[in-house]
Design goal:
CATH topology of the largest domain: Ribosomal Protein S5, domain 2
Number of helices: 25
CATH architecture of the largest domain: 2-Layer Sandwich
Number of strands: 30
CATH class of the largest domain: Alpha Beta
Helix content: 40-55%
């Protein structure tokens, strides 16, 4: 096959989208549409995951950013939840028996706020009616009557005791220490002197009577205390009956209203008991005594313990909730218990300060999280696993274990979890979790893999047109004509370097739509055609290619050595790709190869100085296998070959230059010069087959720019692997140069094909006798290797005979 036959035809240098494929003139004629494009595998996985209600069948959306993962799940959940029933509301109420363990109540959607309002109305009713009832004439009459009866009974007790004491010469007197029995003389108390002057027998008699009367006084006081307790109980019962009348008047309808909810019935019973026990709180409060110069606030009773904390409220007219949590911290996911500072710097809390997290809001629906954000937030991932495992949401103070001193906190009753969790992340995070996190595969059993490339079909191209139309209409952008949409599709094909596929990086394509509309609008156009799409691509390149221009300038000035004219033995232009953030470009790199007699074999200079990666090292070692297989069947190979990427200081990785290295080796062994106007890319295997590489468009365009800067001759071009033809999406300038015969792109299947283009000499095929045609590249290489072997043998003989020369190289 001749060199001309190996040239890639102009029509294969890029795929050109025919605008006639579209029936519209502008995208304004297309209806607005939403939906995913070409992700059938991922969509099927998502539908399966959403349909599985079993625990653990949560979904991981894997793929590159910008491939439509978030927008796809948003649209699918929007459709799915439209006709679903809303989940329950959740409230926290006070646990009157164990205040640090609030009770969780579940109510149908929309009834949580209604229940809170009903309880608040009950309290308002109590505040309004209990004080007036406590001040009513009937209540006061009954109360006074009870007190009077109490005082009357107590008066009778003390009167009888006082009478008996008087009859026996004693009196009942009140002192600072209480009531005492004292002896009297002629109606007055004995003085100390008078009492001591009495005869011993008289004193003993008086002491005995005093002890007897004191015992009766103690009995009287015990009776009074019993009467006081009976009075308190009677007054409390009076208040209870009055309160029960007031509470029951409003509480009984509530019990009937929520008759189907046993936990609410139990809670209302507890509320009733607590209200009746604390009726004093509803009475008018007396202001505390004021200290001069210090105004003390009047302490009003708090009714906070009766409030209902509506944690989650769902709209009964909207389906299951869909929550996208962009900042999945522990508190944002699982809720928190807030604290308030009291006088003296003491932090306190109560059940009304419990706040919901994203899991609470998504309960009964769907929670969408970013995998990376979950993993980098402390406690988030471990707590999420615990929730899924136990199927409950538990609010805890996770920092409690790290505090020097504990603070007052709560242990709210856990809420059952019934939510589908969707995590969005990259493939490497998915596999990292899969292999290093044993629980992960239990809880996220469904993987939806979003492809970054989509097979190009007429249906898919129409979907892309709908995508363009939707963006233009939703964002108020200028409409695209058919040629503008075609240009966008061509760029989508270039993004994935495949003429048969389109990129699914819709975020980048959306930006291109916006930028093209901007430039068209700036230019006064009414719609976006092909030229404005090209302008947007050019402007974006210009914003990012400063480094590329600097390298091209160095190449043009000769600072970076690169010949594009003439022929040189053992020197070839390889091609590499440089990626700097969002911009990628290609550049040529000079490879030089020197061969000599010796036993060192293949010496990769980059490897020796640790500037090469393992893949590049593998590619160099493959060259040894190729040479051994082709030229070492009938003789041992004995040589030293040094391969170097000239002016390479940042390191080399990849095997895409292995074919260029092999071409350089063949040139160095054969003595045939290589055309410097031709650059080479492609990896090679041990059989000499040229294998595909990446970045083919950037490499070709990078070398073209160097040739253009130094002068196009019509003999320059790039040799690429045959398999890479489908990856060609070259820019218009390169295609035009090829069309005009000023630049060329050759594709080859084997090293033999490529060496013929580079040297102009046939590669030569092996004959039955193990030789190659005279004058061919392989013949010259074989002869050179034989000569080296003979020379090494002569050196070996001389060394054996005592000669000083043992060869130019020693084994490593």
């Amino acid at each position: 096959m001749s060199e001309t036959d190996r040239q890639v035809p102009v029509e294969k240098l890029r795929w050109v989208c025919d605008p006639a494929l579209f029936t519209f003139k502008t995208t304004d004629e297309i209806a607005n549409a939403e939906g995913s494009i070409g992700q059938e595998r991922a969509l099927a996985a998502i539908e399966f995951g959403l349909g599985m209600s079993n625990n653990g069948f949560n979904i991981y959306l894997a793929g590159e950013p910008g491939t439509g993962r978030t927008s796809t799940i948003r649209q699918m959940l929007k459709k799915l939840t439209k006709d679903t029933s809303p989940p329950s509301d959740w409230c926290y109420v006070n646990n009157f028996h164990e205040p640090d363990a609030p009770i969780a109540l579940s109510l149908p959607a929309g009834m949580g706020r209604e229940f809170a309002a009903d309880v608040r109305e009950l309290l308002d009713y109590m505040r309004a009616n209990v004080p007036s009832a406590l001040e009513s004439k009937e209540y006061e009459t009954n109360r006074v009557s009870m007190i009077d009866q109490f005082q009357e009974r107590n008066g009778e007790i003390f009167a009888a005791l006082e009478k008996e004491a008087g009859e026996r010469g004693f009196a009942l007197q009140r002192t600072v220490s209480g009531l005492v029995i004292v002896p009297q003389k002629e109606g007055r108390n004995f003085t100390q002197e008078e009492y001591e002057a009495l005869e011993k027998g008289e004193r003993e008699r008086l002491d005995g009577i005093g002890r007897e009367l004191t015992e009766k006084l103690n009995d009287a006081l015990r009776q009074v205390r019993e009467n006081e307790k009976a009075l308190r109980d009677a007054l409390a019962q009076l208040d209870r009956e009055l309160g029960l009348c007031a509470v029951g008047h409003h509480l009984n309808p509530l019990k009937e209203k929520y008759a189907g909810f046993q936990k609410i019935q139990d809670y209302l019973e507890s509320v009733q008991e607590d209200l009746l026990l604390n009726l004093e709180d509803f009475k008018p409060q007396v202001a505390p005594p004021q200290i001069p110069g210090l105004k003390l606030p009047k302490q009003e009773p708090t009714f906070e313990r009766y409030e209902v904390n509506v944690l989650v409220e769902n709209d009964p007219d909207i389906g299951a909730p869909v929550v996208f949590e962009s900042n999945p911290t522990y508190n944002n996911l699982f809720g928190r218990i807030e604290n308030v500072m009291q006088m003296g710097g003491v932090a306190t809390t109560n059940f009304t300060l419990i706040k919901a997290g994203a899991l609470h809001r998504a309960n009964g629906g769907y929670l969408v999280l970013d995998a990376r954000e979950v993993l980098i937030n402390p406690f988030a991932w471990e707590s999420l696993k615990r929730c899924i495992r136990n199927m409950e949401i538990k609010i805890e103070d996770v920092l409690e274990q790290y505090r020097f001193m504990t603070v007052v906190s709560l242990k709210p009753e856990p809420i059952p979890l019934h939510a589908k969790i969707v995590m969005i992340g990259s493939l490497w995070i998915y596999y990292l979790l899969f292999y290093l996190e044993p629980d992960y595969r239990k809880f996220f059993k469904v993987k939806a893999d979003f492809d970054s490339r989509i097979n190009r079909s007429p249906e898919v191209m129409q979907d892309y047109a709908l995508f363009v139309a939707t963006h233009c209409q939703k964002e108020g952008l200028l409409p695209f004509d058919a040629a503008g949409v075609a240009a966008l599709l061509e760029h989508a094909s270039r993004m994935v370097e495949d003429q048969e596929r389109l990129s699914s990086h819709f975020m980048e394509l959306s930006d291109l739509i916006r930028e093209a509309s901007y430039w068209a609008n700036l230019g006064g156009a009414q719609l976006v055609d092909r030229s404005w799409v090209k302008r947007a691509i050019h402007e974006k390149t210009y914003r990012s290619n400063r480094m590329e221009e600097m390298i091209q300038e160095y190449l043009a000035q000769g600072v970076i050595l690169c010949d594009v004219k003439g022929s040189v033995v053992g020197q070839i232009n390889g091609l590499s790709v440089i990626t700097m953030g969002d911009y990628t470009f290609g550049r040529p790199s000079r490879l030089t190869i020197r061969v000599s007699q010796g036993r060192a074999g293949m010496v990769n200079i980059e490897r020796e100085v640790k500037l090469s990666g393992p893949i590049h090292d593998k590619g160099v070692l493959i060259l040894t296998g190729y040479l051994a297989g082709k030229f070492g069947q009938d003789m041992p190979l004995s040589f030293s070959a040094h391969i170097c990427f000239e002016q390479s200081y940042e390191g080399v990785e990849g095997d895409s230059a292995s074919s260029a290295e092999l071409y350089g080796l063949l040139s160095a062994f054969s003595g045939l010069p290589i055309r410097q106007g031709i650059a080479v890319t492609g990896s090679v295997n041990q059989h000499g087959q040229v294998q595909p590489i990446g970045g083919v468009n950037y490499k070709i365009e990078g070398f073209y720019e160097v040739c253009k800067a130094k002068g196009l001759t019509g003999d320059q071009g790039v040799v690429i692997p045959k398999i890479n033809e489908r990856n060609l999406m070259l820019n218009d300038e390169v295609v035009q140069a090829v069309k005009e015969g000023m630049f060329h792109v050759w594709s080859v299947d084997s090293i033999d094909d490529g060496i013929e283009i580079l040297t102009g000499v046939p590669a030569g095929k092996l004959s039955e006798d193990g030789s190659y045609p005279e004058g061919s590249v392989s013949f010259l290489v074989q002869q050179k290797m034989k000569a080296m072997l003979e020379s090494m043998r002569r050196y070996a003989v001389q060394d054996k005979e005592g000669g000083k020369n043992s060869g130019p190289d020693k084994p490593d």
